[in-house]
Automatic annotation (TrEMBL):
Domain HTH marR-type as annotated: residue spans: 3-133
Gene3D superfamilies documented for this protein: Winged helix-like DNA-binding domain superfamily/Winged helix DNA-binding domain
UniProtKB keywords: Cytoplasm, DNA-binding, Transcription, Transcription regulation
Originating species: Streptomyces apricus
Subcellular location(s) per record: Cytoplasm
Entries under PROSITE patterns matching the protein: HTH_MARR_2
Annotated InterPro entries: HTH_MarR-typ, MarR/SlyA-like, Transc_reg_Sar_Rot_HTH, WH-like_DNA-bd_sf, WH_DNA-bd_sf
Name of the protein in its database record: MarR family transcriptional regulator
Single GO MF annotation: DNA binding
Superkingdom in the source lineage: Bacteria
GO cellular component term of the entry, any: cytoplasm
GO biological process, one term: response to stress
Length: 138
């Protein structure tokens, strides 16, 4: 039965959570994948494209269009690194930095929407990280 499948529960939860993010992120002018990029940059400005891809578990071919749109929106800039011209560093613009203040409400709103206790939240993250590690292993 469909409801007995863990894969369906994950799929349904992922779709529901992403849909709940949509109106919050629309106010910021971001899609969910763009929001994830911005979260990494707010945490660590000046990161290489390679390191960003590793953090988000995304291939360069998926990341490049996201970065182009964020750059066109004036939220980040891509620069060749002076110490390694083969590598591109991503840096937030002033507009990208200012957006963080408006985005601070998103995790709180999503936490309320999920309705988990702090213990349930920690357990869910732990289990999902374990599941990801297990299915990603060779």
């Amino acid at each position: 039965m469909l409801d007995d499948q863990l894969c369906f529960a994950l799929y349904a939860a992922s779709r529901a959570v992403t849909a709940r993010y949509r109106p919050l992120l629309d106010e910021l002018g971001l899609t969910y994948p763009q929001y994830l990029v911005m979260l990494v940059l707010w945490e660590q400005d000046s990161i290489s494209v390679r390191d960003l891809g590793a953090a988000l578990q995304l291939e360069s071919s998926t990341l490049s269009p996201l970065l182009k749109r964020l750059e066109a929106a004036g939220l980040l800039r891509r620069e060749r690194r002076t110490d390694d011209e083969r590598s591109v560093a991503l840096r937030l613009t002033d507009a990208g930095l200012r957006l963080q203040d408006r985005a601070d409400a998103v995790p709180l709103a999503m936490g309320d929407a999920m309705g988990l206790t702090p213990e349930q939240d920690a357990t869910a993250k732990q289990l999902l990280r374990l599941l990801t590690a297990n299915v990603s292993a060779p």
